[in-house]
Design a protein that fits this description.
The structure is a single chain. The protein is an alpha/beta fold and 311 residues long. It is built from 12 helices and 14 strands. The longest helix is centred in the N-terminal third of the chain and has 32 residues, at 27-58. It is 42% helix and 22% strand. A hairpin with a 2-residue loop joins strand 6 (112-116) and strand 7. Mean pLDDT is 84; it is low at 247-271.
Length: 311
């Protein structure tokens, strides 16, 4: 079941195009803006293609929960996750999409490189990037609470996958100790089916944690409630505050691209404390946010997970 589609990034595209057209933006800054626009557009196209393939297979399935473009902020750490699949065995597949139009090479040490302007250059490891995403996602699951069976909390299993374009050329090492899988987009669900068969054959205990569709969908909705949309202040990023004189135009651009803190404490970076409306125990911000995002259930008040279950 599809829980969340990708956020609309057209406002970001519009801002970057406005910057390119603005007469007061210097040429060297416009080159940076143009590179940002090109990168954003390519990334959007790749993620859109991946979302189409995933939704075609899984969006209507009662055995899979699908989340696209999930941005989490947990205890000062942030993760921007391209795609998440959760099945009824609580197998969580975290998918990172990458575009390597000039090819991708991986050496024996798990180091990545690609070709740029005819030269081979090193690039950040998407495997390590996804590992950081999974670390934050694990904390998110702790915050939203996991289902229990016979008094025992069921634990999800996490799988890191890097999806690349079907047209990409991948040079792989003969042997690799990488935990993540690097798969072409059009081959993902064939790989997924084989992976699921392995789980069913090898993990008898895992079968015992089979959850209902309602439970998996509930977990997906709780994760969605923690989503914090991305906002980029391009005026600040490209250091254009002093360049663009039109204050009204700058204010308009900033209002489209930044998040305004909710309070003076947040502006100062001070930690806010939240308490359960029932038992008065301290609760994490993400737990309070989940309650506020489900106003019809909690009446706009925040409750700890124990009190949530008893309501």
């Amino acid at each position: 079941m599809l829980i969340k589609s990708a956020d609309d990034k057209e406002p970001q595209i519009a801002i970057l195009k406005n910057l390119l057209a603005h007469e007061r933006v210097p040429l060297e800054r416009k080159r940076l803006v143009e590179r940002e626009l090109r990168s954003l557009s390519i990334g959007m196209a790749t993620e859109k293609q991946a979302a189409y393939e995933i939704d075609f297979y899984a969006a209507r399935s009662k055995n899979l929960c699908v989340i696209h473009d999930l941005r989490l902020e947990i205890d000062g750490r942030m993760a921007q996750i391209d795609h998440i699949l959760i099945n009824r065995l609580l197998e969580v597949f975290v998918l990172e999409t990458k575009t390597f139009s000039t090819g991708l090479s991986i050496n024996e040490l798990g180091e990545f490189s690609t070709i740029y302007e005819g030269k081979e250059i090193g690039i950040p490891s998407p495997v390590e990037q996804n590992a950081r995403h999974i670390s934050v996602l694990k904390d998110a699951f702790k915050e939203i609470g996991l289902p229990k069976r016979l008094g025992i909390t069921l634990q999800p299993s996490f799988h890191s996958v890097v999806l690349v374009s079907p047209k990409s050329v991948i040079n792989r090492p003969q042997s690799s100790n990488m935990d993540a899988s690097i798969i072409k987009l059009d081959q993902f669900f064939s790989w997924y089916d084989k992976k699921l068969d392995e789980v069913k054959l090898k993990d008898t205990i895992g079968i015992l944690k089979l959850c209902s569709s309602e439970t998996v969908i509930g977990l997906g909705k709780k994760l969605h409630a923690l989503h914090t949309p991305s906002r980029v202040d391009y005026i600040k990023k490209f250091e254009l505050e002093q360049v663009i004189v039109g204050k009204g135009w700058v204010a308009h651009m900033s209002s489209e691209a930044t998040v305004v803190p909710d309070s003076t404490a947040e502006r100062r970076g001070e930690e806010k404390k939240y308490f359960c409306a029932n038992c008065k125990k301290p609760i994490a911000q993400v737990v309070a946010k989940y309650c506020w995002n489900n106003k019809s259930r909690f009446g706009g008040k925040a409750y700890c997970r124990v009190c949530q279950e008893n309501m």
